[in-house]
Write a structure and sequence with these properties.
Largest sheet: 5 strands, antiparallel
Distance between the termini: 6 Å
Number of strands: 15
Strand order of the largest sheet: 1-15-2-13-14
Radius of gyration: 16 Å
Order of helices and strands: EHEEEEEHEEEEEHEEEE
Length: 216
């Protein structure tokens, strides 16, 4: 992208809060996006550090988050070890609170086989093959977005976290992070959804997206 400002976040109904949802394509169209993917579905939870377009909306540290910076870089961080104030001082424009981190400093996370989702999701393993959405970084302002369909026989089973991380590494990413997946996984490009959400070509409402406006 031309600069880091080209990667933006948008909220369902332009409002921050629990249980406010629209489909990825609806939010994208409302904001003139040329490209969009679903975000972290922050509205499903009550915790996490949520900074969007430079505004701090929630400061309830809980897990490994992702920070996107004004200089076009990104890095995973421990929400319980880094303050929201320090993130803003460092020029963070967006934070996502889902995870896990897939790649850090060029290395695939070695513990992906044992990752557990936090208790808001029942503390169950997410290692099995599932639809996925993720973001990776090759170089400043050079991002990679990957959406994997799944749960549809004779089409796609999805990917494990380890397989998903390998895709980002094969694409040359030095950092990569797992966003909300499953039925939420959606990729929108130039006016249409280009994947098969829920294996039924039917989008699920989400609370937020990452998007690129026209002209970037």
């Amino acid at each position: 992208m031309k600069d880091s400002a080209a990667l933006q976040s948008a909220l369902a109904e332009n409002s921050f809060g629990r249980n406010i949802t629209q489909t990825t394509s609806e939010i994208a169209e409302d904001h003139g996006a040329v490209f969009a993917v679903n975000g972290d579905y922050y509205g499903f939870r009550e915790d996490g550090v949520i900074i969007r377009n430079g505004t701090l909306y929630r400061d309830e540290p809980a897990r490994t988050g992702l920070a996107l910076f004004q200089d076009g870089t990104m890095e995973a961080y421990d929400e319980q070890q880094v303050t929201a104030e320090s993130l803003l001082e460092r020029g963070v424009t967006q934070t996502l609170s889902f995870g896990p981190a897939l790649i850090q400093e060029g290395q695939v996370n070695a513990d992906l086989d044992n990752v557990k989702i936090d208790t808001n999701f029942g503390n169950r393993s997410i290692q099995s093959a599932n639809p996925r959405t993720g973001i990776g970084l090759i170089a400043p302002n050079h991002y990679v977005f990957v959406v994997v369909d799944g749960r549809k026989e004779n089409y796609s089973r999805g990917m494990t976290l380890t397989e998903f991380a390998q895709v980002f590494q094969d694409l040359g990413c030095t950092e990569a992070y797992n966003l909300d997946g499953g039925g939420s996984s959606t990729m929108y490009f130039r006016g249409r959804v280009v994947n098969n959400p829920q294996g039924k070509e039917r989008e699920r409402g989400v609370s937020d997206i990452l998007y690129v406006p026209e002209g970037n």
